[in-house]
Write a structure and sequence with these properties.
By secondary structure, this protein is mainly α. The protein has 2 helices and 2 strands. α1 runs antiparallel to α2. This is GpW protein.
Length: 72
């Protein structure tokens, strides 16, 4: 099940605030998440950014069609 972009944005913003204040523990929906290092928090933020970009970015088709001609 995909998480809506608005929820991902909320999670990312909360994680950025926690990281900026030096907190390594966050609470979300009654769940406690503790990050061991700042690098781990940075990786989580980068993952959320990627997921947000996927959820809000334009949908691209999976097929490419080429038309060729010999010019005759």
């Amino acid at each position: 099940m995909a998480v809506p972009a608005e929820e991902l944005t909320t999670l990312r913003d909360a994680l950025i605030r926690a990281r900026a204040s030096g907190v390594r523990v966050t609470l979300y929906e009654g769940k406690r998440i503790e990050y061991a290092t700042d690098a781990e928090m940075a990786a989580a933020i980068a993952d959320l950014d990627r997921r947000i970009a996927q959820a809000t970015g334009p949908r691209r088709g999976g097929a490419v069609t080429f038309t060729t001609s010999k010019g005759v």
